[in-house]
């Protein structure tokens, strides 16, 4: 099971989200669960404006650091933005939308902590 210090892209993503004051950052190791990515990162922003800003900045940083272009989905509404950076997939949510979809539980197959407000 790899962690951020073993994966430069994951480390970059987590640092950028921390710098942008993302809330409740959760990393899920997907190795052996799916072939879509090695890691999933889920985080919240306080508003649609913060979610959109974090997504755009993360996409720019990943590209600037040489990991290639990323795909962004959901940016216009910014309730839930998906950033596909290849080996790392990032979901940025407004808190209400995050608790509704509860991706942590779905992808961690029950071994992730509950999202605040859903317990």
Give a structural overview:
The chain is of the alpha+beta class. Helix content is 35%, strand content 23%. It has a single domain, classed as Beta Polymerase, domain 2, CATH 3.30.460. The protein is globular, with a radius of gyration of 13 Å. The protein has a 5-stranded mixed beta sheet with strand order 1-2-5-4-3.
Quick recap of the structure?
The protein is α+β, with helices and mostly antiparallel strands and 119 residues long. The chain has helices at 8-19, 48-64, 95-101, 103-108; strands at 23-29, 39-44, 71-73, 80-84, 88-93. The protein is 35% helix and 23% strand.
CATH class: Alpha Beta
Main structural class: alpha+beta
The whole-number mean of residue pLDDT values reads 88
Question: What is the CATH topology assignment?
Answer: Beta Polymerase, domain 2
How far is the first residue's CA from the last residue's CA?
A: 27 Å
Helix content: 25-40%
Estimate nothing, just give the exact number of structural domains: 1
Low-confidence stretches: none
| C-alpha-based Rg, rounded | 13 Å
What would you say the CATH architecture is?
A: 2-Layer Sandwich
Strand content: 15-25%
CATH superfamily: Beta Polymerase, domain 2
- How many extended strands? 5
Q: Count the DSSP helices.
A: 4
Largest sheet: 5 strands, mixed
Main-sheet strand order equals: 1-2-5-4-3
Q: What does the overall shape look like? A: globular
GO molecular function: ribosomal large subunit binding
Subunit structure: Interacts with ribosomal protein uL14 (rplN).
Protein name: Ribosomal silencing factor RsfS
Family: Belongs to the Iojap/RsfS family.
